Amino acid sequence: MRIKKNKKKYVTANLPPGTMAYKGEKLSTITATEIVNYSKDEHHRLQSNRIEDAFNLKGNNQVTWININGLNNVSDIETLGVHYDLHPLTLEDIVNTGQRPKIEEFENYIFVVFKMLFIKNDDELHYEHMSLILGSDYVLTFQEADGDVFGDVRERLSTAKGRIRSQGSDYLMYSLLDAIVDNYFTVIEVFGDQVEELESLIFQSKEAGDDTPQDIQKLKQEILKMRRSIYPLREVINRMEKIESSLIEQKTHSYLRDLYDHIIQVNESVDLYREMIWSLMDMYMTIISNKMNEIMKVLTIIATIFIPLTFIAGIYGMNFQNMPELSTENGYFVLLGIMFLLFLLMLLYFRRKGWL
Questions:
Q1: What is the DSSP letter of 54?
Q2: What is the largest CA-CA distance in the chain?
Q3: CB contact set of 6 (below 8 Å; sequence gap of 6+)
Q4: E strand intervals along the chain
Q5: C-alpha R_g of the chain
């Protein structure tokens, strides 16, 4: 009998190029807009639910950072795209959560797609699709929902700490990407602790339970997903560092080179833990096999001990009349003594061989 499996239906949406279609799961009823406008001597921050509030800041000789939360509100994003003259394919990639990290250079802006990874209070790893647009005096960031890793950047902007307020929009772009990559280290550290904890659990075989293979498989899926999100950013930053564009000043390239070194280090850590996870299952199966071998050894020894005893009992269990030992007065006790002596001799032999 052949078991029929429920086949998953795959639907291909053959939409025209440039069609905005959000496919994520993080839905927001409003488009939360955060507007930060700053210069070396001034700083203004506004939070609004109206995308139009960001329009009057364009071309004010200051740097403007507009952060949009809620990619499912495609009409608002399209309105912002019209105002900043964004290409339709750019708008399509902004709301396409399946888009891999990449960088594209247009005439008046640079478009970057990446994944933001962060740990929330539930100690679970969260992935968020993000897009960044660098203009001459503005930076636009688009994220799926509330929550990001830009708290330190906001603090530096509000307190004028560091050089960020005295630099242009390209340095703001670098600062945001640097915050993303730095948080990768935190995520990798948390993930590494989970791998090492599971590794210790496997070695302590008494505590390793039946759900250990599922835990290993879950970590394996997580590291593969993490690698797909982080690894392409290496090429993105490398290409960004080599771009000859008026939007990126020459002095900013030095910071981008340092950022490239950081993402290389992150990728190396991901590959290291990936190899460790792949070896965890082999390690677990080896320990389980060793346990089974120990059990089989004990059972084999027990069976070996009882083979001669069973042989003797079988012989004297036959119903023949001409068996001299059956008429002996103490034959029963003598036979039990011989069987017990064989038992002791075999135990001593097994112990001398180191099998017990």
A1: G
A2: 121
A3: none
A4: 32-38, 43-48, 63-69, 102-105, 110-119, 125-134, 138-143
A5: 35
User: What would the mean pLDDT of 101-128 be, rounded to a whole number?
Assistant: 85
Inter-helix orientation angle 212-242/250-315, to 10°: 160
Query: Which stretches does DSSP call E strand in 135-262?
Result: 138-143
The residue extents of the domains of the chain are: 32-286, 290-352
Angle, to 10 degrees, between the axis of helix 169-203 and the axis of helix 151-159? 140
Whether the pLDDT of residue 129 is over 50: the answer is yes
Contact 128, 145 (CB under 8 A): yes
CATH number of 32-286: 3.30.460.20
User: So what's the pLDDT on residue 206?
Assistant: 52
pLDDT tens digit string along 327-346? 777 878 888 888 888 888 88
How many CB atoms are closer than 10 A to CB 116? 22
Contacts of residue 192, Cβ cutoff 8 Å, sequence gap at least 6: 269, 273
Produce one character per residue of 153-164: b if its CB has 16 or more CB atoms within 10 Å, e if not. Answer: bbeebeeeeeeb
d(Cα 157, Cα 151) in Å, to the nearest integer? 10
CATH code, residues 290-352: 1.20.58.340
Quick one: 268 exposed, middle or buried, by C-beta within 10 A (0-12, 13-18, 19+)? exposed
Both tokens assigned to 337? 């003594």
Backbone torsions φ then ψ of 31, nearest 5 degrees: -100, 95
Identity of the highest mean pLDDT range in 41-55, 154-168, 340-354: 154-168
Q: What is the pLDDT of residues 166-224, one digit of tens each?
A: 899 999 999 999 999 999 998 888 888 888 888 877 777 555 556 777 888 888 888 88
Q: Is-contact 184 230, C-beta < 8 A?
A: yes
Distance CA 64, CA 70 (A): 19
pTM over 0.70? The answer is yes
Other beta carbons within 10 Å of 195 = 19
Secondary structure of residue 222 in the 3-state scheme: helix
